[in-house]
Every structure is written in structure tokens, then in C-alpha cells.
Amino acid sequence: MPTMIKKDDKTMDPPNEKPHKKIERDDIPESSNHIPPPEASVLRGGKINSKTRAMKAVTSIIVNTDEKPQKSSNKVDGAEKPETGHWSSNIGKFEYIFYKFLLVMLYICFGLLRYGQYQYNKMKLRIFSIIYNHAYTPQLIRQDVVSLKKIPKRLAAILEIKPVGDVGGGVTGLLNDASEIVCWTVSAGIKHLVLYDYDGLLQRNVPELRKEIHSNLAKYFGPSHVPNYAVKIPHSNKTFYNLDGIESETDSGEVVNGNDEGSGIAIEVSLLSNRDGRETIVDLTKTMAELCSVNELSVSDITMDLVDSELKQLVGPEPDLLLYFGPSLDLQGFPPWHIRLTEFYWEKDNNEVIYSVFIRGLRQYAGCKVNVGK
Amino acid sequence: MKVPSVIQIQFVALRRLLAETKEQFCFAIKNKLRRIFGWIMSFSLFSWLYRTIQNFLIKVLSVGPVPEHVSFIMDGNRRYAKSRKLPVKKGHEAGGLTLLTLLYICKRLGVRCVSAYAFSIENFNRPKEEVDTLMNLFTIKLDEFAKRANDYKDPLYGSKIRIVGDQSLLSPGMREKTAKVEEITKHGGDFTLYICFPYTSRNDILHTIQGSVQDCLQNKSQSKIDIKKFTNKMYMDFYSNKCELLIRTSGHRRLSDYMLWQVHENATIEFSDTLWPNFSFLAMYLMILKWSFFCTIQRYNERNHTLFERVYEGVPSILKRKKTSISLHQFPNPPISVSITGED
User: Fold this and answer.
1) Quick check: A227 and A302 in contact, CB under 8 A?
2) Model pTM score
3) Segment Disordered: which positions (chain A) (predicted)?
4) What tens digit of pLDDT does each residue of A223-253 get?
5) ipTM given for this complex
6) Where are the alpha helices (DSSP H) in A161-240?
7) Is A337 on the interface with B (CB under 8 A)?
8) Counting beta carbons within 10 angstroms of the beta carbon of residue B163, is it exposed (0 to 12), middle (13 to 18) or buried (19 or more)?
9) Half-sphere exposure of B63 (CA within 13 A, CB side)
């Protein structure tokens, strides 16, 4: 149904008329409002996650006898949930406090063990970073990859911004991380890369990102042999080629040769944000409802294939391997439709974008077996 | 720094060898231990002790924060059967038993909702006998659950069972059965069990899209769809928005088309290498304890810190090396600078 797809694109994404020096969108908040899962949020570190604070937090539960979930985010507004007091009914007050006390003890033991594990993991990571070292040499990366049985066709990575005062923090740090991953991916011979960040900071800083990628690629390959790359924003349907290549609007997600006709594009980088997740699916539903109401589409036409092809068009194909460079897996709202069979890889307690995570992720992927349903 | 390739190859070979032997060794040891454990458990004193300790641990944890929605991907039944040279059916039966025990534990911990991935739509691609066996087993288990949920002596009393998924793929007889079970247990409130039977998450999303479009057509109230409403229309009612803890067994690190919508925002996803029938009380207890521990800290931080502080103050980790800023004036004075030409 090619006609409908066109229409969808028109209705959903009115072409952005602004000059593309800086793509600004109002719907993206300045700071992250993402609530990570408990472990990830605590292990992220920071002043508020100090050991003494953790201790205070753990012991405070004795005092807080009326502990209620602060944010019952599970409760969707408008829906009522059966309310039950499962504890108050069959347990005395004294017993309750006794169990709370024991729970604190249990927490403390667990915390100590976890701290030991944390240190062990950190040590392991340090050793890994010695064993796996790219030394800014693409040949070495390729050598690491050649021994693997298979590599993913599409790689995705979730990046997050670090506090400005930190090493590798702020937008610059984010851009640097992104371009490092681009270089590794090019060297490994993977043609498609998806970079996801919750707030869409990469999408808003495309010119800087292109510059950063260029300079980093020059560092790896030498200034005269910088591979061709394309940066794509599926949300606004734009593609940028190389450092100063012309920008064009492509209809399909395939890699098209840019201004340099002779050699193809070595890598295509798609930038995604939270906007491409749930919201896009809901937008698609709205569009379909509109089309149905004017009888251009019937409800029975909405099939898995149609939705899948539409979402492929709007967001891109499903990645094969998803790398996360944080301490504990946190998908941060990565487009849900696109993580169906995606392998995840992250290193426990790691908090940096490092090469060992990248190469070990590829190793895991090479060893995994996908059997849909079987 | 680059490690010479010769040494690197040695490393790799050694690592592989270690991994292989380690796996076999671990497996043998575990089997032995399990057998010894089973033997010890055959004494009533020990089994009583075990149960008492387990009850006690559950009670302790249940006074803290517990996840509301726990979800399982029950992977590894067939490998379990294969490793013990049993027919596949036995593996699935063992899996069903594990689910039942874990349900008891979850319920007593205070978890509100458990969902389990019983059968994927893709599983219809399996050999026909196996699909039939699974269906049969499923109906038997379902009846058992329904009976338990209605038996006030049973720990599962008062739970609600919902079978979610694309029911149109089931045979009419099956559909009748599932409807009956849902009907019997619909008054339960404390605890909901969602059994995802032929389910895939993409199918769930597609189903919701269709439903929303249909609604729009009927009510003529377009563009009123938002994420909340959309989520409410999904198979799992008000538990559709979020699943706090997803547990996947048997070592794969992917979601396999399960709970994509629920899990992709802020759920904790735990992967375990044990096969599902071997997934024990202790393993799950530790996972929930971990969740509970970190959740306590997170909530405490949320209560005591504004968003502003969280975003702008959370700078360097205490666990990392401390970076102190120092101004140039704080250094001791350098020695006198003298030029070789002797000038001032």
C-alpha cells in the first residue's frame, strides 16, 4: 500500500521548514524526566547515592511504618485497582516491627555483599579494558571481529548524558561517546547503527555530531581516508551525508550513495529518542483512525504486516544487538516494537562507554542462537 | 597498550577451555547437590525446617517494598527434559510445578499481579504433538488453578485468573474452557494471575491499535487517543502500563516478543542462567530482595530530594576516585628560577 504510506508520512511528520543548523523541537524536555529502574538509578552514583545515604535509607524503613508506594506508576489514571490490606489484617504491631528490623539486617547484609560484588566487577572491567584495547587502530578492531562466527546487521546503543562536571559529561561527552561507537562500528564492518538517547540530544545537535564523527574517524583512519557516513533522523525523515554533504530527504530506509558516487556509505547512523517509542505507535493509531473515518482504510486492513512496515518506515528496522553502557539494564523507553528479538548486552556495574563492552557484546551475539518459537 | 596476538590467542583458548570444563563441572556438582538435597528433604524434620525458614524469610521481605507486577518468561523446560533424558512432556510438567510454587511465594510476599509467558504465538510452529501436549497440559493445569483459587484452604484462594492473548487462535473447545475458568475466578481481588496463552507483545500492540481505531470510529471522537488510554486498552488492563520485575530463565538475553510495552521504560529485567524447572525459591527471593533493597534507597532519595537536586547535583560517584579541584595558588612555591646566562 505505497499510497497510504506516503499519506501517513505527510500527516504524521509535516516537513520541518526550519533551517537545519539546529533542529529544535518543543516536545523534548531539557532535562531527563526518565525514571530509571531502582537498581540502575542507585548504581548511577552521584552525591545522593552515597553509602551513608544508602544506610540512612535502609534504616529509615523501621521508622516509616506507614510505608506507602510513593508513586504507584502502575496505576494508570482512570483505572481502579482492588485495594487490600494484606498485612494489617493478620499481623500484630510488635511482630511487624520485629520483621522490619530483620529486614533491615537482611538489607545490610545484602548491601555489603553487593558492595563486594561491585568492587569485583570493577576490577574485572579494568582487566577487560587491558585485554580488549582498540588503540585507535581500526585494523585491530577488525582483527577482533574477524574471529567471530557472525556479526549483527544492525547495532543499537543506548547512550545517556552524564552530569556536566563529570569526566565525559555534558553534551560534548555524549557526542564524543556517540562518535567513538560510530568509529568502532565502522571498523567492525557493521553498516547500520542506531543511537538512542532519551531526550533526543543527539537529534538536536546533528551538526556538532557530524563534526565529531568526522574528526574521530579521521583519528582512526587518517584524514585522507575518512569513510563516508550518513546520519539519519527517522523522526523528521532527514539524512545528512558526511561532514558537509548535502542533506536530502529519502523515502526509504536503505542506504543511498551520497555525493560521493564512487564509494558507498560505510555506515548509516540513525538517531532515535523517546519520541520514537510509545508516542509514535499512538500517533500511528491516530492516523489510522483518521484514515478509517474517511473510509480510506478499513479496520480489517490493519494487520501485523502493515503496522510493521509503517513502523519500519517511521523508526527503522529492528536492531539485532542492543548495547547499553550503564551499570544495570535500563531500556529507557527504547521503541518497544523494535526490541522483539534484540539481544541485550551490558556489563554489570560499568558506567562508561568503553570498547570492551562493545567487543564483548559482539562476542555474545556471535555465540547466541535465535530460534523463534522453537 | 596492545597485548601481542600470541598471548591473546592463549588467553582465548584458556578461557574457552575453562568455560567448557567449568560448565560441565558445575552441572555435575549441581546435580549431585540436588540429589543430596532431595535425600535430606525426605526426612520430615528437615523439610519442616526448610519450610519454616522459607516462611520466615518471606514474612521478613514482605514488610518492605515489593514489586506489584512480576512477570516470568518460562524458558528451558525442554532443555531440562533433555538434560535428564526425560520426555518433553515431563519437562513442561516440571515447569508448571515451578510456576505454582513461585505463585505461592509471590502471593505471600504481597505481589499483586503475576504474569507468565505460557505459550507464544510463534510456538504454533513447533511439532504438532508437542503443541497438542502443551494444550492438554495447559487445560489440566488451568483446571487445577481454578480449583485452588476456589478452595479456601489453599494458599492461592482468592486469586483471579485471566488468560490473555489472541484467543482466536485457540480451538473453540479451549476457548470455552478458558472462559469458564475466568468466570469461576473473577471475584478474586487480592492477586491476579495473567497467563499469556497464545501471546506475543506485538500482537498485543496490534490488537490495541485495532481496538482504538474501532473505538474512534464508533464514538466519532478522534484524536482523543493518548498513551494512557492506549495502554488501558491492552490485554492486561491496569497492569499493562508497567511490569516492575521481569525474570527470564535459561540464559538468553532477549525478550522474545514478550512484555515489550510494559518493560521498555523502567522495569528491572533479570536474566538467570538456570533452566525454568530448576529456578528455585532462593533465586527468586534474591532477585526480589535486590529489587526491594534498591527500591528502598530510590524511594528514600525521591522523598528527600527535589528533582532539581537530582538532576544537577548527582555528579561524581563516591565509588569512583574522588576528583578534587585545586587552584594554582594552593601549590607550594616553586624553586627560584635561574637562567644559565646569569641574567635577572
Assistant:
1) no
2) 0.81
3) 1-46
4) 888 899 999 999 888 888 887 765 555 444 4
5) 0.81
6) 170-188, 201-204, 206-221
7) yes
8) buried
9) 31
